[in-house]
Structure prediction request, 531 residues.
Amino acid sequence: MFSNVIYSNEYLELIEEEEQYYVRVFEKGYNLNDFNNIMLQYPRINLTCFSALTSAIALASGKIIKIGIKKPLVELSVSKDRLKGYVTLNMTTEEFDSRDKSELVEIVMQAIQHSNIVYGIDVHDIVNIIQPLKKIQIAEGVLPTRGNDAEIKLYKIEEVRPQMVENEAVNHYELNLINKVEKGTWLGERIEPKEGVPGKTVWGEIIPAQPGRQVNLEYDKKTVTERYDAKQDKTILYAKRTGAVIYQNNIIGVCNCLEIDGNVSFKTGNIDFDGFVDIKNSIEDNFIVKADHDIQVMGDMGVGSVDTIESRDGSIYIRGGIAGKNKAKIICNGDLYTKFASECTIVCDGTVNIGSYAINCNIKAKEVKLESYKSRIIGGNIEASIKVQAGEIGNRTESYTKITVTGFERNKIKEEYDTIILTIKKVKEKISLLKQKLSIYSAANLSDSQKADFDKLNDEFEYYRDSLKKLYNKQKKYVSYLHAKGEGEVKVTNCLYPNVSISIKSCNTHCSKFLNTPTTFYVLNKELIKA
Prediction:
């Protein structure tokens, strides 16, 4: 029955019969490892009964034992993910070299045609790369492509950067503090998430694709409305009313904005407003303007002996300057921007930015900056926590000018700054983690519990994103503080006149002579240094 002996030696015979392989071991002492050499001579043996082989060699009973089946000449296989198809020629090198290559390629093509591999087949180079017993890729499927996530663009509030414009015709201190919009103005949009592109296995199976992740549009429902534009596949935000754009807790809204076309006067009365105030001209003497948010006075002439201008939680911009006549009081929780200031009182929790000069003013702030080379501080009492900077301090008539910098603890500020940096890193890591968690959810087909989890994660994501924005703003201020020299600085970029008193952290100096060079005073280790 078993007459087709394809190999024999003094220990055993290898028999092939009807696509199956058998062994008869008649002498003990055969080394199992040597059987590998026989396998190399007969690459079409698929050893399916290894335990039977080891037992036959050990017992040498002379019985015919089945050990395997015959591999096909052209063996096709597919990767576990079903995305790659391979072909292997089960023949020895000698057999391969003796066969016509075009005939082998034809055999391979016929095997592929009769297999389950139907997609992504590419055999144009197979004639050049085919080798015996080498797995060669002949097909590749396509991974699904996730749809694009929703993209959000929102109205951008530009960073406030004052600019002093000076030439023969114009002398203005230009910036825009209030971002005013009309009803119906575009405030933002969300390009909706896209469906993904399905993939396909080499067997032709469709691999579903995940749609892009939806992102919530955060806006104040009372002042902003949304409309879906099917043609553009966008959800667009519009202002419900005229007002000033504001972000609170990363939510865009339109705050009340009181616009005065002319002056604040007897016609309007004093103003105390719960939003922004935009005054197109000026504020007449003795009048009061107070607001919760930013105030801007846009007239070329600025203001005179007003009573009070106060922003409880914002900044103030007075385009034309302040001629206070020893009466005007300017108070703000944010920053102050003005072209000039004279004979007024300024109390500011942020930075006082003055374009041209400050004459006989009482100013108290974190920093007082007159950055122009031609800027001047003359007379008055200037007090800052961190730094005072001007082109010139004092004047030729030697008006008494007092500059006080209460100073700061650099190590403490540095520790706080390092804490901010560390917190920023942790918040960014948290945001990255939340993004990964959110990406798991498909925009469609969410159960109620999954939607609740998704909404909770999204709220947390928005919270940390808003926190990051606040941290960056805080970091920027601390960078400014740390740029100050020592533990408090007075910087003169042009010249310093006599009769100027400078006090930094209880270290005092009185300038008794004219200094016509850039000079910086700062305190380091309780010592006043002049550089």
Q: What stands out?
A: Residues 234 and 437 are 25 Å apart (CA to CA). The radius of gyration is 41 Å. The chain is about 20% helix and 35% strand. Residues 448-483 form the longest helix (36 residues).
